[in-house]
Design goal:
- The structure is a single chain.
- Helix 4 runs parallel beside helix 6 (about 155-175), helix 5 (about 105-125) packs antiparallel against helix 6 and helix 6 packs parallel to helix 8 (about 195-210).
- The protein contains 9 helices and 7 strands.
- The protein has a 5-stranded parallel β-sheet with strand order 2-5-6-1-7, with helices on both faces.
- The chain has one domain: Rossmann fold (3-Layer(aba) Sandwich), CATH 3.40.50.300.
- It is of the alpha/beta class.
- The longest helix is centred in the middle third of the chain and has 23 residues, at about 105-125.
- It has helices at about 5-15, 25-35, 55-70, 85-95, 105-125, 155-175, 190-195, 195-210, 230-235, and strands spanning about 45-50, 75-80, 130-135, 145-150, 180-185, 215-225, 245-250.
């Protein structure tokens, strides 16, 4: 039997959900997306709406009410109030996968992850920065020329670290024993801040995770924009085995 607090929380969810127009269509679309997801195939559900219309509440409802009732573990990457970077995104994926994989597999992944990061951090700490300041005779402060040179190898090492971390995460996904529904809230902030990051997220992480996972995955993006990046369109549109479903909703308030 549910407790009084659990019952009240459930009622509050339904009361708030009543504010949405076409709410039954949203719920039916989401549940159908879960049921139709297949292993090895990229399934994406997009939720689009202006700021303040309740997108975050809607996915919270999906996470707390719909997914548990259908036996789907969930993960959430939220960028509503933060600027994403590659490491934090991978950490979000790890957090999502940890409820779907054996504990020993998770420990092995974390050991690899820390070793890769340790090697990179050691290299970065060994770098020296050469700085020169040149000021001509009788020049003012504004006329001083300054140049800073950073070892170009650092960028190559950083890209290599991303590859190592991504590969280890994909290996972890191969151990999944349960399906996964991953929500990305504030999706448009990735494209606004770093378009290259969006390319890498889909091509080097999400697609490979989905293809390696023996269980179905559903990716739900939530934001003010659709998947406008050309790399994402190449992944989602041409292949028949990939599905992209868009949902636009309105709010009565």
């Amino acid at each position: 039997m549910p407790t009084t607090s659990q019952t009240d929380a459930g009622n509050n969810y339904h009361d708030l959900l009543d504010m949405f127009a076409d709410r039954e269509e949203f719920l039916a679309t989401f549940q159908q997306a879960l049921r139709s997801s297949q292993r090895g195939r990229l399934h994406v559900l997009g939720v689009k709406g202006n700021s303040g219309t309740g997108k975050t509440f809607l996915i919270s409802y999906f996470i707390n009410r719909i997914c548990p009732s259908l036996g789907w573990p969930t993960g959430l990457l939220t960028f509503v109030q933060s600027i994403p970077d590659f490491r934090t995104i991978l950490e979000g994926f790890e957090d999502a996968l940890k409820s779907c994989v054996p504990l020993n597999s998770l420990r092995l992944y974390r050991k690899k992850r820390e070793e890769y990061k340790r090697r990179f951090d050691e290299y970065r700490s060994s770098i020296t920065i050469n700085q020169t300041v040149e000021a001509r005779e009788h020049s003012s402060l504004s006329e001083i020329s300054q140049s800073v040179q950073v070892n170009p190898e650092l960028r190559r090492r950083e890209l290599h670290l991303r590859t190592e971390l991504s590969r280890a995460l994909v290996e972890l996904a191969e151990e999944c024993e349960r399906p996964l529904c991953l929500f990305i809230d504030g999706y448009e902030r990735m494209a606004e801040n770093d378009p290259e990051l969006v390319d890498r997220l889909w091509e080097e992480v999400i697609l490979k995770l989905v293809q390696s996972d023996p269980q179905p995955q559903l990716i739900v993006t939530c934001g003010r924009e659709w998947h406008s990046n050309p790399a994402i369109r190449r992944l989602l549109l041409p292949q028949n085995w990939m599905t992209s479903k868009g949902v636009t909703y309105t709010n009565k308030v």
